[in-house]
Amino acid sequence: MSSWIDNVFDEHGFTEDGKTVAPFFTAICSQGTSSPATQTARLHFVSSVLWNSCPTPQLPILPEVLSRQDILTELGSLHIPRDMRYAPLTACLILIAAASVNASPWSRIKSSFTWGGGRGQADSSQWAEERELGPYLIRSEFPLQDVHGLVQDLGDLQQDLEETLRLKCQPESIQIHLFQSKRSYDQYLRVRIPEGINRQALYVPGTDPGTGRIYAYRQRDLETDVRHETTHALLHTALPYVPIWIDEGLAEYFEMPGSSREKGHSHRKELRDAIRYQGWRPNIEKLEAKRKLLDMNGKDYRDSWGIVHFLLHGPKEARMALDIYFEEINSGAQETPLSKLLRKRIPNLDQAIIDHLK
């Protein structure tokens, strides 16, 4: 370790362990000099931390072949104190990008690692096909001709969503990774997003605006899964914040092909049966109280779809309330609960939803 880093350690009293790495990031990024020696020292320390050279339980072990977007997403998910999380880490990444690629610490990074535009090259030996389609970069372990309909649907999905919701999506780079099997999906995610291996498909928002990654594996519902996760990705480029229940309700709605969205979803029959045999009634306030994905169960997905269907295909007052709700979210102000906007315009709201769905 260089004398420059030694001086910073001595000045701030830091040691290389899990408790002091985060504040050291702050200190190392505060140094203003940009001499080659300093760049090399910074590279040495940052690469040693990122690649687990020092015992840091708060930092994940990162694979050697990652794109720029992979690194940004991984760093955005670090479990370190919130007030230390983004600014110092981003600053360190800028330092790495600015330094000479000939510096010795880069010997541990494969040549496929790239910082260009968020579309870094992946290990080409893994993918049978790669294709760019508008803002999407699709990487697949099987020929995309096998899912030709899905690829075509993705090309139309943004326009459908914008026209239906009267929103403007602004995707920059959405990477879609398609795996041949559950096994290869699990192997890929285990070192990147281990909590995702229990899900059939996964959307991970990027740290840059308009970016994100989608993972799914080949099975009967692959096309539905990818449309669902891509809806999440697009919605999060149109709105600064999407409440979990309406996020999932809209994803359930748009996961169907365009011709089947209004009448073709299995949730329609499920809700009709629930109304007829179980006395089902909607409870928007209960859905609004949910803050985490883990709070949502199967019936919550179904009920969210039903309310979204009412908003999009029900009375004009419902659609007006949704438009106002989105406008308030986009304004940055504290939004009025959608339930309140609806009940103000539709006094007997619960019965109106039941009548619409049955």
Portion in helices: 40-55%
Termini gap:
70 Å
Radius of gyration: 24 Å
Percent range for β-strand residues = 5-15%
How does the major sheet shape up? 5 strands, mixed
Q: Which strand order spans the largest sheet, edge to edge or round the barrel?
A: 1-2-3-5-4
- Could you say what the CATH architecture of the largest domain is? 3-Layer(aba) Sandwich
**Quick one: CATH superfamily of the largest domain?**
Collagenase ColT, N-terminal domain
- What's the helix-strand series? HHHHHEEHEHEEHHHHHHHH
* CATH domain topology of the largest domain: Glutaredoxin
Would you tell me the structural class of the helices and strands? alpha/beta
Any low-confidence stretches, pLDDT <50, length ≥5?
1-68, 70-118
Overall form? globular
- Provide mean pLDDT, rounded: 76
Count of individual beta strands = 5
- CATH hierarchy, class of the largest domain: Alpha Beta
Number of domains: 3
Count, helices: 15
